[in-house]
Amino acid sequence: MAQTLSGYLLASCMLAPGIAITCSFHVRAQTWNVHYGRPEEHLVPGEQSRISSERLVIALKARFGERRGTEGLRDLYLWMKKEFSSCVGGGRSIGKTTINQRLCARDMSGCHDHGLVFSGVARYLGHPAVMVDAAGLMWAEHFKTGKTSRYSGHVFAEVCVAPRGILVDSTTEDFLA
Fold first, then answer.
1. How confident is the model at residue 15 (pLDDT cuts 50, 70, 90)?
2. DSSP helix, strand, coil percent of the chain (3-state; round to 5)
């Protein structure tokens, strides 16, 4: 994966028939942080995505078993949809909430929380994953001219399903390979 996979997949997303997108996004993957040649590096959880309970990790692995590939990721999405409720957050939890808090509360306030739980659990199940922040194109245009202060964007998860990566919208179950 020499190029930034996220940018390529987003272009596919906008061109693919039958995929509904409510807003256009531009993904700017920070390639210096994503090591496409060494996906195993993205199995290591970060501060926000580290699950502190070994019992919970064992339970998650038992729940999802050895299912790999997109079927396993689809099971993860369906589990999240069934087990978690939505709450109003307005973006206030971005960068502040942890996977432990979301797994305990069983609620999510938006795409950041969905992406955090999806990519975090995917890592524990053996899929290298990163969160991908995308800025809304209209917001970016307004931001360049100083006409906006409220951020508009979306968070995706990029998951390595060997030998390639898949961009996942963990709020809608759109998988873009």
1. very low
2. 40, 20, 40
Quick count: other Cβ atoms within 10 Å of Cβ 140? 18
Q: What phi and psi, each to the nearest 5 degrees, are found at residue 175?
A: -110, 125
Q: How many CB atoms lie within 10 A of CB 78?
A: 11
Radius of gyration of the chain (CA): 16
Q: pTM for the full model?
A: 0.75
Predicted local confidence at residue 62, as pLDDT: 93
Q: Is 108 exposed, middle or buried (0-12, 13-18, 19+ CB in 10 A)?
A: buried
Task: Name the class of domain 5-176.
Answer: alpha beta
Read off the pLDDT of residues 132-160 as tens digits, 9 standing for 90 and up.
Answer: 888 777 777 877 888 876 777 888 999 98
Q: Are 127 and 160 in contact (CB under 8 A)?
A: yes
Q: Would you say 125 and 74 are in contact if contact means Cβ atoms under 8 Å apart?
A: no
